[in-house]
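Example S7 (structure tokens).
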């Protein structure tokens, strides 16, 4: 079993990886709603990266 720290560390990267993979697969094999899902699924990680890179850093 994974420790609490490991689960806390890997939850978001794994979730974003699954989201990205589903978006890529959807873009390859489906039309209409699949195109919409692929835009959403591939856009969310990009928006999260942009948000985290542009927000001011807190002092530690």
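Recovered sequence:
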């Amino acid at each position: 079993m994974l420790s609490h720290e490991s689960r806390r560390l890997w939850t978001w990267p794994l979730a974003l990886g699954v989201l990205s993979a589903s978006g890529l697969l959807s873009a390859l094999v489906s039309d209409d709603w699949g195109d919409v899902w692929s835009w959403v699924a591939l856009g969310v990680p990009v928006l999260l990266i942009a948000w985290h890179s542009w927000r001011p850093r807190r002092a530690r």
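Notes on this example. The longest helix spans residues 4-29.
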